[in-house]
Amino acid sequence: MSQYYCFECAIYLGHLRPAIPAALTDTQYQLEKYIKHTAPTSNYNFNSVFTSPGSETYGNYIVTAVSSGHVQMDDRGRKNIVWVGSEQTGLTYKNRVLIGPTSAVKVVFHDNDQMIHGFPIDSSELNAAKCVNCGRAVPY
Ligand SMILES: [Zn+2]
Predict the structure, then answer these.
(1) Ligand 1 centroid to 116 CA: how many Å?
(2) Domain residues for 91?
(3) How many angstroms separate the CA atoms of 92 and 68, rounded?
(4) Ligand 1 mean position to 71 CA, how many Å?
(5) Would the pLDDT of 1 be above 60?
(6) Which residue spans within the chain are E strands per DSSP?
């Protein structure tokens, strides 16, 4: 079971310690993730792609997520940051066929400046949950 922390509690409890490098595509790993999530023709069975593929937009989404999103801690202790936008963030594809729009962004490895990256997700993937610290509903 994943545990959720609202933004304020995540900060207070020290679960949100973003490490954002000057360039988000400096490592080979990050570059591959960036290309995967900005180029809709890449070879993946399932993939999500940002609507605006520019590296500046990509960086803005990641900064926005870690500066206002909530924390989703999975049962392996991994901390993902999820931010739900008011606009479309990207599109999902399955076997290169368009499935639909996304309205949220997930950032993984947020505290590792060599691996941090993000990708658009559909907000319907998010379970209705409460912050385990204060009981506030997340993501809202
Ligand atoms: Zn809370």
Answers:
(1) 24
(2) 3-138
(3) 23
(4) 10
(5) yes
(6) 3-5, 46-50, 70-73, 79-84, 90-94, 97-102, 104-108, 117-121, 129-130, 137-138
pLDDT tens per residue across span 49-66: 998 878 888 999 999 999
Q: Which two tokens stand for residue 71?
A: 């924390």
- Report the separation in Å between the CA atom of 134 and the middle of ligand 1, taken as the mean of its atom positions: 4
Rounded Cα distance, 128 and 117, in Å: 24
> How many separate domains does the chain show?
1
C-alpha to C-alpha distance for 137 and 112, rounded to whole angstroms: 27
Q: Is the pTM of this model over 0.85?
A: yes
Question: In a 3-state reduction of DSSP, which class is residue 89?
Answer: coil
Q: Which long-range contacts (CB under 8 A, 24 or more apart) does 98-104 make?
A: 102/48, 104/139
Of 110, 106, 83, 118, the residue nearest 18 (C-alpha): 110
